[in-house]
Design brief:
The chain is mainly α and about 210 residues long. It has helices at about 5-15, 25-35, 40-55, 60-65, 65-75, 80-95, 105-110, 115-125, 135-145, 155-165, 170-185, 200-210. It contains twelve helices and no strands. The longest helix has 18 residues, at about 80-95. It is elongated, with a radius of gyration of 18 Å. The structure holds iron/sulfur cluster (SF4).
Length: about 210
């Protein structure tokens, strides 16, 4: 049985200001930035969106632009053909079904082309202040290592974390674990001896004892 309050307390003290590192000023911009962030650093996405958001201001702008033009505009983020297709289709769906507005609930968000639960939870948490557990590669990996979940599937991990963690903490915890994954609990070489979560972590305890 994990001491969840102690783990949350450590994360709060270590990463008190953890928050999303994508730049955006409205829900549509966040949706676009989140789609672009797949397999790309947030830093690179922010460089691209700085210009992109001056040119594309509404869902209709994405729906109406020729696909090749959009591909060129987002090319530096990688996987630009798939991402351009998703953004164009998503823009069209927003115009057709949501009066060109980004919906503020998970059920409708995940029906949009190219939007999965991870992206939807990012949008809910950061744009609508609605708690959501975001299971990206960092959150999944660290949750497994600590022993908060035995699951491998991101959606099952999300549900395990929702069971364990108070709802008001879902969004903050996600950003704290993402920061922890970037700085300490890295994929290849977790720095367990310097980790404040060591005494609460299954993987860390195994490594420390070996
Ligand atoms: S103790 Fe190691 S494996 Fe566990 S959270 Fe810290 S860095 Fe990651």
């Amino acid at each position: 049985m994990k001491n969840i309050p102690a783990i949350l307390d450590i994360l709060d003290k270590t990463y008190p200001a953890a928050k999303i590192s994508l730049d955006f000023s409205n829900p549509l911009e966040l949706l676009v930035a989140t789609v672009l962030s797949a397999q790309c650093t947030d830093e690179r996405v922010n460089q691209v969106t700085k210009e992109l958001f001056k040119k594309y201001r509404t869902a209709a702008d994405y729906a109406n632009v020729p696909l090749e033009e959009l591909e060129e505009d987002i090319r530096p983020t990688g996987f630009f053909r798939n991402k351009a297709k998703s953004l164009k289709n998503c823009g069209a769906a927003l115009v057709e079904k949501h009066q060109a507005e980004v919906p503020d609930n998970l059920e409708e968000l995940v029906k949009l082309p190219g939007i999965g639960r991870k992206t939807a939870n990012v949008i809910l948490g950061a744009a609508f202040n609605t708690p959501g557990v975001v299971v990206d590669t960092h959150v999944g990996r660290i949750s497994q290592r600590i022993g908060l979940t035995q699951q491998r599937d991101p959606v099952k991990i999300e549900f395990d974390l929702m069971e364990l963690i108070p709802q008001e903490k879902w969004t903050l915890l996600s950003h704290q674990l993402i920061q922890h994954g970037r700085q300490v609990c890295k994929a290849r070489k977790p720095q367990c001896t310097e980790c404040p979560l060591l005494e609460h972590c299954d993987h860390g305890q195994l490594t420390a004892g070996s």
